[in-house]
Amino acid sequence: MKTKNQIVKTLSKTRQKLWKTTIISPCSFRTKTQTGKVNKHNAKEALKHFEKLREMIAQRPSPFKGMTEKKVIDKLRQTRKKLWEEKIGTNT
Amino acid sequence: MELILDANEYIFAFGLMKKEACTNFFERILENISSHHIHICRTIVDEIRQNLSLDEFREFILFINPLATIDEDFFVPFTLGEKYMKKGLKPADAFIAAYTEWTGADVLATENRHFLTLHDNLPFKILTAKKCLKLLK
User: Fold this and answer.
1) Within chain B, where are the H helices?
2) pLDDT digits (tens, 9 = 90+) for A26-66
3) Cα–Cα distance measured from residue B57 to residue A17, given in angstroms and rounded to the nearest whole number
4) Nearest CA of chain B to the CA of A19: how many Å?
5) How does the average pLDDT of chain A come out, rounded?
6) Which of B40, B50, B84, B107 fits as disulfide partner to B94, beta carbons 3.0 to 4.6 Å?
7) How many CB atoms lie within 10 A of CB A55?
8) How far apart are CA A56 and CA B126, in angstroms?
9) Helices B54-64, B42-50: inter-axial angle, 10-degree rounding
10) If we measure between CA atoms, which residue out of B30, B6, B28, B8 comes closest to residue B19?
11) Which of A57, A59, A88, A92 is the best mutation test for B, with the most CBs of B within 10 A?
12) Range of the domain at B26
């Protein structure tokens, strides 16, 4: 039968192991993201959806109709600001 | 080339506002995808979603999934964002600049003039789609 000290030591080791896994997991994710190569099949697939999306958008009126490029960018920046404030929970 | 495409590049390329350079830029990337890598963060995805219907957004996800992994915003260190706020960018724009630096991307493609005025000592280039197209030729 294990003593109290032995149990504490085992639990401590488990915690250390879990902690190591937790702190390195975002790094593993990043490595995977950075090295992920896109093959020709994937590019073909993406192009298919890109064209379909453009077709879908062409069939409806644009929310930016009649606006200059500067105005559209300003509107997009406003959306970004609003989303960002919602995310960080402020309203400056 | 490692690329970050700002939300306005996607929106223009999809035709919500017609800008041929943006569409051509996307097509050029897709033609030669093995030489490039696109990074996209949650903030940019959320901004795009604001301008698309549910079906269109589904199509967007199907488009972006084979090309890039969506990075969560919380991966980006706060101090990096602060650095760009000190350079005069608004917090949300500063985050995009910080994200670009954090990913180690070579270029941030944007039509946003607030970014385009930022030049000094940056670890990446800030270019419009038109200039990127010239670079990719």
Assistant:
1) 7-13, 20-31, 42-50, 54-64, 78-86, 91-103, 113-116, 129-136
2) 444 444 444 456 777 888 899 999 999 999 999 999 999 89
3) 40
4) 18
5) 78
6) B84
7) 11
8) 30
9) 150
10) B8
11) A57
12) 2-136
pTM of the full structure: 0.81
- Residue B116 and residue B130 in contact, taking contact as beta carbons nearer than 8 Å: no
Contact A50 B63 (CB under 8 A): yes
Q: What is the Cα–Cα distance from A38 to B34, expressed in whole angstroms?
A: 6
CB B59 to CB A34 under 8 A?
Answer: no
Residue B37 sits in a domain of what CATH number? Answer: 3.40.50.1010
Q: pLDDT digits over B50-105, tens only?
A: 999 999 999 999 999 989 989 999 899 988 999 999 988 889 999 999 999 999 99
Q: b vs e for A59-71, b when ≥16 Cβ sit within 10 Å of the residue's Cβ?
A: eeebebeeeeeee
Strand partners, B126: B108
Domain count, chain B: 1
